[in-house]
Amino acid sequence: MIGGKTVQDILYHPEDLIESRKYFSWERFFTVMLAEYTKDTYLQYNKSKLKKAYLHEKIKQAILEAVEEIEWDA
To answer: What are the tens digits of pLDDT across the range 42-60?
Structure first.
């Protein structure tokens, strides 16, 4: 849903790209990133209220498929 090599690089190697002096946690970094990448779109993210678009079956499935593609280290 948010395309681009930059996003993919961040998801696969967050430890290389997240500046720990600027962000207290990875969760905060990803919240800011999601808000910036979706600004002025129908998927504009706001942590306090999730848009209904995120609950649409097609969007939910895309999110789940993206998560499954990531190789998680145990």
So the answer is: 889 888 888 888 888 988 8
Encode the chain in three state secondary structure: CCCCHHHHHHHHCHHHHCCCCCCCCHHHHHHHHHHHHHCCCCCCCCCCCCCHHHHCHHHHHHHHHHHHHCCCCC
Per the CB < 8 A criterion, the answer to whether 47 and 53 are in contact is: no
C-alpha distance from residue 60 to each of 5, 15, 30, 71 (Å): 21, 26, 18, 19
pTM for this one? 0.62
Instruction: State the Cα–Cα distance between residues 50 and 71, nearest whole angstrom.
Output: 27
* Torsion, CA 25, CA 72, CA 64, CA 15, rounded to 10: 30
